[in-house]
Hints:
Nucleotidyltransferase, domain 5, Actin, Chain A, domain 4, 4 domains, six-stranded mixed β-sheet, binds adenosine-5'-triphosphate
Amino acid sequence: MAANGERKAVAPDQRCAIGxxxxxxxxxxxxxxxxxxxxxxxxxxxxxxPSILSYVDGEEYTGTQAKAxxxxxxxxxxxxxxxxxxxxxxxxxxxHCHAAAHPQDANGSVAFSVQDKAEGDASTLSVSExxxxxxxxxxxxxxxxxGKKVTSAVLTIPTxxxxxxxxxxxxxxxxxxxxxxxxxxxxxxxxxxxDARPEAILEDKNxxxxxxxxxxxxxxxxxxxxxxxxxxxxxxxxxxxxVHLDKVLMDHFAKEFMKKNKDVDPRENAxxxxxxxxxxxxxxxALSIGTNASFSVESLAEGIDFQSTINRLRYETVARNxxxxxNRLVEGVVKSAGLDVLDIDEVILSGGxxxxxxxxxxxxxxxxxxTQIQAPSTNPSAINPSELQARGAALQASLIQEYxxxxxxxxxxxAVTTVAHITNAIGVVSTAVPARRxxxxxxxxxxxxxxxxxxxxxxHIKVTKPEPKPEKKDEEKDEDDSDFSDDEEExxxxxxxxxxSGETLAEAAIRGxxxxxxxxxxxxxxxxxxxxxxxxxxxxxGGVRGNIAA
Length: 550
Ligand code: ATP
Ligand code: MG
């Protein structure tokens, strides 16, 4: 066990490293095989492992097995504890633990009281101890799968984790005998997973990563410039996430049940509520794949069995508040990054809730057609949103596991990420410099002289109002009695991004170009923001070069 403050370190040649995503709701483990990331199934065959521990007669259960105990062993079942790490009791939100073991105030920090032994009194477990026990189980599953002891991991963290939370997570992992190679930010892990694909084109782009989980939705706007990732803005929300979609279905089915069984509300009894919740989550997941889901619980309340069905349209109607909240969250963070939806090249949907087809469809509507929406229902080649972060973490682990701990520490601050396509560690910094761009321009067909002008580009959003429609005649109006007819819908303004030429930065004349030759223009932005511009004939000698001071 590592003493407080001391970090567990393993020699590079002794390491066996994995990527680990430890969420409040689910966790995933990934490794790399031949440089590609693979998410590992645990002994229950799960790749999304519920972040839950349950104690029954002194036995410890985890994952799906532990989740099942929420019905009849709720008090000894620990859920939704990841975010409590490194937090004071007074600043946590215990909402998601109300139907499980309750967090308690232990001298200002968070603890749980559970009967974890077959006999004797209940134990008081600090949240750090709970996390350690849970991580130990994940590491065990990974070791069993790989057939060798896993020693090290790259873990993912939300962008708003404090230093104290990071430290507590590292300590909890170390106590589970796991070396933490690096903590990387969840949205960066998502982007890494996409950028590591062999077919990925690494061009400069603005990306929105919407990580929609169980208890929280985190959205980030990331600029990718020359292989460097810059987080431009983030937003965090705890009201519009997976559990809120479960709740919508719980209320829906509870009301259905009450139509048939007057005065019996399954939400008023703890066990009934737990059954209602588990089946609602299953129905919700089924609605991501099919357009209909069945709902069936034996002895839901007062010994009465209940069966029902729901279709996707009905679900989307009852869930519209939550779905609308997610839309606003995404739109808001694009604004706070100082960007317009037209500036976004790609939207990566990550986290379990991102399987929801309506959410991907809403993103499709919010963003222009040129924006790629990376979600299973809008792009068949999208990566499973539940696996993205673990994959990104595993890729990162495989890159840095060969380095000595000190070297890793120095070059991989939580805000720094190494990516496969460049050899040096790169920074997630607020300005993506130094940067270098090279472009090739066709010279005049017959050869001759050219003048190259390098100008500043400015964009603005051009709004075109739709053509006003001719007023309808009275008799037409009478016939048209549908409220939802397409004609009645107001046409939206047409918005497009247009480039304006700004100030001229440099001019260069190249004389005597050969027939059919090209001109290469290189723009170098140094760390001090000084700009060097060079222009030359491709394959030719000499060229023109000039500096613009920062
Ligand atoms: P958090 O930390 O926010 O609690 P997490 O990061 O631990 O969440 P994720 O696996 O990203 O967890 O998301 C879990 C949520 O995704 C749960 O609410 C789960 O019901 C939901 N979910 C998983 N699969 C699907 C699916 N196929 N369709 C819809 N929702 C799904
Ligand atoms: Mg998550």
